[in-house]
Design a protein that fits this description.
This protein has a single domain (5-66), classed as DUF1653-like domain (SH3 type barrels, Roll), CATH 2.30.30. By secondary structure, it is mostly beta strands. The model has no long low-confidence stretch (mean pLDDT 97). The protein has a 5-stranded antiparallel beta sheet. The chain has a two-stranded antiparallel sheet with strand order 5-6. The two termini are 15 Å apart. The chain has 1 helix and 7 strands.
Length: 67
């Protein structure tokens, strides 16, 4: 389960998870989050993608890690 709070993206930027929402057509869970840099825009991303493990610099790492 994705909790509200501050997360670090695997490339270093910080984000705040504001809430979990449901897509109105598919009911897919979406993470609503805010960038903690520049203008602080609000974004959504599928929860499954948020929790993914990705390959970065030859290593497998979590896309987002709670701090």
């Amino acid at each position: 389960m994705i909790e509200k709070g501050i997360y670090r993206h695997f490339k270093g930027n910080m984000y705040e998870v504001l809430d979990i929402a449901k897509h109105s057509e598919t009911l897919e869970e979406m993470v609503v989050y805010r960038a903690l840099y520049n203008e602080g825009r609000v974004w959504v991303r599928p929860a499954l993608m948020w929790d993914e493990v990705v390959e970065y610099n030859g290593e497998k790492v979590k896309r987002f890690t709670k701090v």
